[in-house]
Fold this sequence. Notes:
single chain; about 200 residues; 5-stranded mixed β-sheet; globular
Amino acid sequence: MVGTGWVSGLLDFSASNPDNTNTLFLIDPKYAKLAPYHNTASVYKCPADKSTVRIGNTVHRRVRSLAMNQAVGWNATASWVKRGGPEWRIMHKLSEVRQTTMISVLLDEHPDSINGAGFAVQPTDQLAQTRIIDFPASYHNGAAGFSFVDGHAEIHRWRDGRTTPPIAYTGSMQLNVASPNNPDAWWMIERTTDKN
């Protein structure tokens, strides 16, 4: 397997899935585009994320809790951003980012939501049509950490209970759910992309 994304691997809670514990998918340049810039897998795992996988008689912590905004450097055909409409932008170069203080790059994702390396948001202009595709983490007292294109980071507290389902550590959470008039979904849209 040769990685094409910022990292490789598809997380779940299966003991038979080596991606859950394989740090090479985070630090080996063969699998991860960001690998040449560091050699520490722990930067991709928030200490507040307690998700584990049992392999035989041993419990292992999963290797990643972060996901990347699918509007930053993503393939347009694989991104949920374009499902919102062709006018929503995917930015591949820093010069394409109009508001560096507003566009997120990495964020904490809910342990039962995280799977691939991308965090999916489907943009809309209509608050009544907001959806939550992937769920952000909420283990920081009802909040999640975000990093932004300009280098700053924020902890954002969620306001709507639909954004913060309890953690089951099973991966059985339903993703891509309607969440009309959810101010948290709107906040994430505003920090994911903008229009052409």
